Amino acid sequence: MTRAGAPSGRVTAAWVAAGAIAATLLLLHPAARGEAPPGALFWGATVALGVLALATIRRVAALQGGRLDGVLTAALFGLWVVYFWQLLVVAFEVPRVLLPAPSLIVQSMLDHWSKLAGDFTQTVLKAVLLGWALGSGLGFAVAVAIDRQPFLQRGLLPLASLTSTIPLVAVAPIAVMWFGFDWPSKAAVVVLMTFFPMLVSTLAGLQAAGKLERELMHSYAASYSRTLLALRLPAAVPFIFGALKVNASLALIGAIVAEFFGSPTSGLGFRISTEASRMNLALVWGAIVVAAVTGSLAYALLARLERRVAFWHPSVRGP
To answer: What is the pLDDT of residues 31-42, one digit of tens each?
Structure first.
């Protein structure tokens, strides 16, 4: 233990190595490979390994270092979840149509990587990126307009709130009829989903500037645009990034669900729907993995950009 009471890095690394060795040895058991029914020895080793995994994760989480320690904790936790998923699915002989093992999912992704790459391009690089940028930009512009002309709040804000109450399953078929089966209809759905969160967050951020600071700018006879750029927009930056991060997830979900209601022969939503009807659950999970990793990376990139832009704000200030 260190002076601060945190576990030392070397001891923690030894715990991680011991867990990795024990996990590898358990995979050599016939029950872990589906060659024999699991017995008492297998279940006892599994429980002991679970206890060791929890202890290892707690020790890694208790490390007092930089932000990298949080990443290591999340990565270690994810690896243990995938490991026990593989172990228990094979041991219980769970049918593939119910829950395929991670090894089958990875193999399916490798076998169909060209399809998944095309699906990624169709859904993410076309529909999601364009819809996210347009929806967020439009929400920001309308928020500034409402803030500049308060009377617009009585007319535009109620109409804008309606966009957040429209069911996705209702608007997706309409978007397909208006914009066709290709990616523009999915981008339109994404615009509708991302508009209102950015509008509300930007309005809240513009009101976050302190009253004394605004009165000081007024006493200097600063114009609205000068006050907006020098005071109110910097105060709204954390709110804007919060909306951007939320919209990144909403955009991906919206585009995938919209593809269920009509799409060309590519797209993550199309792949999930088509392969599920064929009972090819391994490829379905492969498409889900691609979507989940994409959403996580987008959130992480936006969070990192937020730290650089709004480094002064308490909500993003590093340790």
So the answer is: 888 888 888 898
